[in-house]
Write a structure and sequence with these properties.
The structure is a homodimer of 547-residue chains.
Chain A: H1 12-23, E1 27-31, E2 37-41, H2 42-58, E3 66-70, H3 75-86, E4 90-93, H4 100-110, E5 112-117, H5 122-128, E6 137-140, E7 156-158, H6 159-163, E8 180-185, E9 195-199, H7 200-211, E10 223-226, H8 238-245, E11 248-251, H9 258-267, E12 272-275, H10 277-290, E13 299-302, H11 309-319, E14 322-328, E15 335-338, H12 350-357, E16 362-363, E17 368-372, E18 386-392, E19 410-411, E20 417-427, E21 433-438, E22 443-445, E23 448-450, H13 452-460, E24 465-475, E25 479-488, H14 496-502, E26 515-518, H15 532-538
Parallel strand pairs in A: 1-11, 3-4, 3-5, 4-8, 5-6, 6-7, 10-11, 10-12, 12-13, 13-14, 25-26
Antiparallel strand pairs in A: 1-2, 8-9, 14-15, 15-16, 17-18, 18-20, 19-20, 20-21, 22-23, 24-25
Helix pairs in contact in A: 1-2, 1-3, 1-8, 2-3, 4-5, 7-8, 9-10
Chain lengths: 547, 547
């Protein structure tokens, strides 16, 4: 027997309709590519997103056709998030930090019909347009009078000329909530990129979960700064959750330097910010010498890669900002775990609490996880035993776009499909996850595993070290041994011997790296993660001392 | 094109599986009918709910058969919430405050096959069992050795004997998320009761929404006391949201007097409590003379009926507890609006904030609302113009069980069905709802409407008045005129003239009641609401002074 509740599909457009009706004058503030500040409201987003939908209709774009973006976090990008998905097309956010060859490859693989870009990415568009024959229209996210002349890009229009004259009324269509809404390619370091294809249902469910008190805790009282990019995994779902709760949104545009981000937080009374460690590193680096303070910022979610313990400490102790460690991935929309405390922890000492906060956190309802050994058997949740991390849930991929890479899921005894994350992790008795390493980055030394991340965290805790990457190198006796590749802080000095001595007492003796390699820079991927494959390539002729 | 995310139906059993895996040692504390305190954990709830499902299987209960409960808030009731719905049967919570005739009527109408009851309701069961031929088994929620002997109730078993010996393993079935999970009859004052039939989908979506920061703001750090009964509209969804976030749950059982509730809050470090005004009135009445304070309680949601402004003030000013006004109904699962502030209100004066807090609040994402005039045309959201309140959303009924009452929805120009709530309300420009009255309680005087609730609120603000009810009586010239029926506080005195004088300056002159009727008690319905129909009946021979 079915229940007798109303049938409303979970639609991305409903989020915007809600924000317009119930939070119409809620502010959206954007730093634009031009450097100035733009302000308007949720009612304006809704009106202009309807114009975007109208413009796509005028262009004859079919249901489910792909509209790509190469854009910073800003109001026009937000309008595309809603106008494209809301009208039944698929929003394909492209990471502009990818190599032009990769961008051309994924634009073709996705079969993008339209590509909208911020003017800062014109050179990128100029480099790829000839290789993207499927793109019928290129849209520069600017006013008509800012449209570049003689760009060489065919069928180029300005965003404002394209959508600005469209009627502002439009009835958002209702359709199957499992319809594809948006897509994002993984920045896989091996093989071709693969795309996660999100649905309206998965996006709305994720939006509910992301706003929960134990996740990002978003309310109508917040002023929210997503520093995490809208060009990668939906900016952690903030564009959707923000409409759901009607909060103020503050977009940083391209200005991600410490000064710009700090000033925006202060000027717009930001209460909550989300970002990757590198951005916060720059901001704290700007604040410390000038002895600056936050007036309104209360909490920040840090994810994208493991957050150095020192940064969590600095935010909390020096600035009174609560740091929530997060973990997720492109294939998970992206949120999987957030590190918030439980009722039983309320009377713990601050140090014990900090030890919990260093972990990646607990599963959000909608995500289940497990760790398994090489035979696929469950590994105990004791915070010590590690295993390959598997996840499942309504906002986890079941396969990639066009079936790339085959069936990624691993079935359990009950026939349930789990997605193998490629991470190695421990889970403690309270359900707190700790990523030990990427499966492929773990160093296998004498039958034991060494976490490259542990080795890196110790190195960056040294006052002279700015960045560190640990990789394994071949060893005739131990199979692999770890070495640590480091970048020194400007003006700071430390010797190989001093750094190795620094490890003593901080990790088991056999886990201490065999060598230190000083470099000027460590290669980072498009999402700010260390490119260990590149590093291994660069160091392929490296020889361990004494061998 | 469909998205490629994993397919997981939204199942009530998933909530419990999540709580067991990720919050297994989270506490559930219950005051039992016997008066003692029972403690166990989410892992225990999960284990025993599986035993309940097994016992229902053993009894041969078919998919979607109804299992009724007549029970207080407690751990066994929670086990039934999950064991019954999770295994595909329908949980039918019956309000024990209904008249036995009504209980027999709805048990037959629902075709309940099993009825589980707390021992305090044995007399009720004895009064109705002979009239409920469909009920094959009566389950007393007690240990085997507490089973009443010679009760006269056939097929009576103790809960523990019934489920306690079942195996503890059970694989929760997956099925269409629109399957009926539970039902609740409205306590309609006219006509036969009608049942809302909730689904797994509506219950899980409501659970997400109910836990949001702008709604009940539930996290794993909370200790939650639902004083709102599990026998009526799912205790506002707390049994589901609590599992979703893994908080501590504290059940008051039958002890709803001020002393018991206060002591439970203190003993179990309750941070959040939800209840109707009458319960809080009793608690504050207990606390004030003894000058008691709360140690941990931070916020409370008050709903069920309009909360007197004086009570909001007392909680906030005298006890530092944030009061959130809520509004909902059986047909809405039940939550519709919660009164939390917006970003723009952050710099308002405390008095202006309090004026907002007196309203019923803003819509939660998932609920849309509108006010319409007699012609079905939208009424302006200006906080002054009133209209009939209509709602829609995935946890709002589209029809009643067995089609009772026909199609309740009213279609708009776009073919969308709206549920007419039977309330008259204003909505202000910021989307804050204020219930002016029940459509049928509004007093129509000389073509203008007078809100009976406004008249009652002024009366109870008088220090000598304990309770007030305003009804309209026939008037040859004005059609209707308001009178106010009042109960004085013990030992307090006030005359008719003094009370009428008290209205001056507090409302328009023509809205001041024509008379005051002093009574010893005002009749309340099963959910604590004033029974105005009964009052009108009692006063049917009443004559206005001077007529």
């Amino acid at each position: 027997m079915l229940g007798l509740m109303q049938e409303h599909p979970l639609m991305i457009s409903s989020l915007l309709e809600f924000a317009e009706r119930h939070h119409g004058d809620g502010e959206i503030v954007s730093r634009r590519v031009e450097g100035d500040i733009h302000r308007y409201t949720w009612a304006d987003v809704a009106r202009r997103a309807r114009q975007v939908a109208r413009a796509l209709d005028s262009d004859g774009l079919a249901f489910s056709e792909r509209v790509a973006t190469l854009a910073w976090n800003g109001y026009r990008h937000l309008e595309l998030y809603y106008g494209v998905s809301g009208s039944g097309r698929v929003l394909h956010t492209i990471n502009p930090r990818l190599h032009p060859d990769q961008i051309a490859w994924i634009a073709n693989h996705a079969e993008d019909s339209v590509l909208a870009f911020d003017l800062s990415f014109l050179p990128l568009v100029q480099a790829v347009h000839a290789r993207c024959p499927n793109v019928r229209k290129w849209i520069a996210l600017c006013d008509a009078d800012k449209l570049p002349q003689d760009s060489g890009v065919p069928n180029l229009v300005s965003y404002e000329a394209w959508m600005g004259t469209q009627p502002t009324d439009y009835a958002w269509p209702k359709f199957d909530e499992n319809t594809a809404s948006s897509m994002c390619y993984t920045s896989g370091t091996t093989g071709n990129p693969k795309a996660a294809l999100y649905s309206h249902r998965s996006s709305v469910l994720h939006a509910y979960a992301a706003a929960l008190p134990d996740v990002m805790c978003l309310s109508a009282r917040d002023s929210v700064l997503p520093v995490v990019p809208m060009f990668h995994v939906n900016a952690w779902g903030i564009p959707y959750s923000a409409a759901m709760v009607g909060c103020k949104l503050v977009f940083p545009g391209p200005a991600l330097d410490g000064k710009s981000v700090y000033e925006l937080i202060e000027a717009e009374k930001v209460t909550f910010a989300a970002g990757v460690p590198t951005v916060w590193q720059m901001m704290l680096g700007h604040m410390k010498p000038a002895n600056l303070r936050f007036s309104t910022l209360k909490r920040t979610v840090i994810g994208g890669s493991a957050c150095p313990p020192a940064m969590i400490g600095a935010f909390q102790d020096d600035y009174g900002v609560e740091v929530l460690h997060a973990w997720g991935m492109t294939e998970m929309s992206p949120l999987g775990t957030l590190c918030t405390l439980k009722n039983k922890h309320m009377e713990m000492s601050p140090q014990d609490r900090l030890n919990i906060r260093l972990k990646q956190g607990r599963a959000i309802f909608g995500v289940d996880m497990k760790i398994v050994d090489g035979d696929g058997q469950d590994v105990t949740w004791d915070g010590k035993a590690y295993g390959d991390l598997y996840v499942k849930g309504p906002w986890v991929v079941r396969e990639y776009f066009k079936g790339e890479g085959g069936d990624p899921l691993v079935k359990d005894a009950n026939g349930q499909g789990w997605f193998p994350t490629g991470d190695v992790a421990t889970i403690d008795a309270d359900g707190y996850l700790q990523i030990t390493d990427r499966s492929k980055d773990v160093i296998k030394s004498g039958g034991e595993w060494i976490s490259s991340i542990d080795i890196e965290n110790i190195a960056v805790a040294h006052p002279a070290i700015a960045m560190a990457a640990c990789i394994g190198v071949r060893h005739p006796k131990w199979d692999e041994r770890p070495i640590v590749v480091v970048v020194k802080k400007p003006g700071a000095e430390v010797t190989r011997e001093e750094l190795l001595k620094f490890y003593e007492g901080k990790t088991a003796k056999w886990q201490i790296p065999d060598d230190v390699v000083f470099v000027d820079a460590i290669p980072l991927g498009a999402t700010g993660k260390i490119l260990k494959t590149r590093l291994r390539e660069t160091l392929k002729d490296y020889k361990l001392p004494g061998l």
